[in-house]
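Job type: complex structure
Entries:
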Amino acid sequence: MAARLDLRALGEFGLIEAIRRRAGDAGRAWRASIGDDGAVLRARPGRELVLTADALVEGVHFRWRTTDARSLGRKALAVNLSDLGAMGATPLGFLLTLCLPGEPGAVSERQLDGLLGGMLAEAKAAACPLVGGDTVRAPCWSLQLTAVGDVPRGRALTRAGARPGDRLLVTGSIGGAALGLRLLEAGRPLAGALGGFARRQILPRPPWRLGARLVRARLATAAIDLSDGLALDLEHLVRRSRVAAEVRIEALPLARGLRAACPELGLDALETALHGGEDYELLFCVPPAAPSARVLAGRLGVRLSEIGVICRGRGVRFLRGGAPTEIRVGGYDHFKPSAS
Amino acid sequence: MAARLDLRALGEFGLIEAIRRRAGDAGRAWRASIGDDGAVLRARPGRELVLTADALVEGVHFRWRTTDARSLGRKALAVNLSDLGAMGATPLGFLLTLCLPGEPGAVSERQLDGLLGGMLAEAKAAACPLVGGDTVRAPCWSLQLTAVGDVPRGRALTRAGARPGDRLLVTGSIGGAALGLRLLEAGRPLAGALGGFARRQILPRPPWRLGARLVRARLATAAIDLSDGLALDLEHLVRRSRVAAEVRIEALPLARGLRAACPELGLDALETALHGGEDYELLFCVPPAAPSARVLAGRLGVRLSEIGVICRGRGVRFLRGGAPTEIRVGGYDHFKPSAS
């Protein structure tokens, strides 16, 4: 049995001290970190700072019955690294607002240990130390992270730079995490390939390192990370860039096994891939004459698929066998009823 | 009757768009802001960045029955400006993670309008624009803010710089907000002076501008903002600075009317002032030979009290009529039962 952590005995400052000890030294980029009113960053000359915020809330983004604390900790940082990567930024550090239920026994030592352990392991691997934040009592668990990274001056990747003629590329595969979520919610036994989908939802591995490489090579014109489903995220990108996009359905990298597994749950594989969300892959645009981004991605072990092209106009069009096909644009929206 | 806001109809992206329109342009310091994966800050040469995080959670930090939305929005930013000020930083911008109950009708248009209106008014007055964040569904309202500011390189005020001989100064008055909270929780009618205590709790006005002035004048050696009560916050400061402090009880600037109002609620005025929390005043140290900080503070309309001195040793000692007196060190702790 996991020991229950008595937060009332430990107290807010005991908890902060415990986190501070586990987080260790923030490294040379930081002049002050956990334990002061704020963290102080030594910004490097010729660089600009990128700030992202992404939160995970119990009962909304995760349930304790379908995740483990360590994966949750890793995921909380990973989704913020994904945002940094989509801006072409190199991570420098992050702040954590940790909301915990205050009743005695509501938080177990194993949960808190696992969560911090997972988050700090991810932080170490990304050279992105925990440098500050806040700890508060709340009705349920939630983690609000703000990550900081930097980019060479004037070269952050935004959603707004795509130009007609640009090729549209996406990393990895799509739809797996969305299917995983449905499997977890349905309480299905997760043998074989199904377990892979669930793991993909519980612990995404965004290819965030690619973003800074694309910036360094001056390869990409615009980028967005896939959190709400490719269809909706691409819609965001073309709207901000004031362009249109054509996507070839056949070129979409559906997660392996998705077509086989979806019907059993009454799902359409293509809809799941386009609207499911939580892929945490990188969708980006490169000019037509640019050298291949495949070499860069290959060095990081990241697979790339060219799925379409940017054109003049507005909106996203889907083509099947070269002919336009109707696809409803949906995606994950926090405040709208589920699309499927 | 306030119109209920149908978040399901508006959706996450409708909400973000509404916030984006209200927030307006972030100004020249920001290359990208709301509506991308991250915000991009043009850091100024010779400056270092300061990052702070502070959250307000419904049922823990506020209750709708005792606050109005506009004050809550202002307070959420004000407490982060207080942290920036305590680091000697000038605000540059902030990120907001807005957690909202998702059930239809749980959020009224007036609440959301008031909250954003208050926050953005505070932002405008502080030249600290909203530049990014996240909007998520959650079981209750909460606001997690991360504020960014900057300081001249190497000159951030931390808790760690106090030296024996330094004078100990505090702005404004203490204890009023804590009494205000007790009055609000007791549901007392808030006529006359009592209303002032309540307002102080609902809408603190931290003297955050003083921090950057102290840095510019190279006057202060260490600082902390008073959020958990002077006794506990001073304890944090002396521990980080590895010094001791002597505080003259007679010199403490108790809020006007506190001594008269406390007994009626069964409270001790001194305990309320020392342990109550949420004063959001600035406690700081200046070298013995430094010119008076009073002139600087006076220009900002901020009252200063010299309440003691930093000495060798460890811990905080309280003196009454020059003789040591026993004061229990308490203060607000999120995970410990209330001290009083």
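Summary: The mean pLDDT of chain B is 91. The CA atoms of residues 161 and 222 of chain B lie 5 Å apart.
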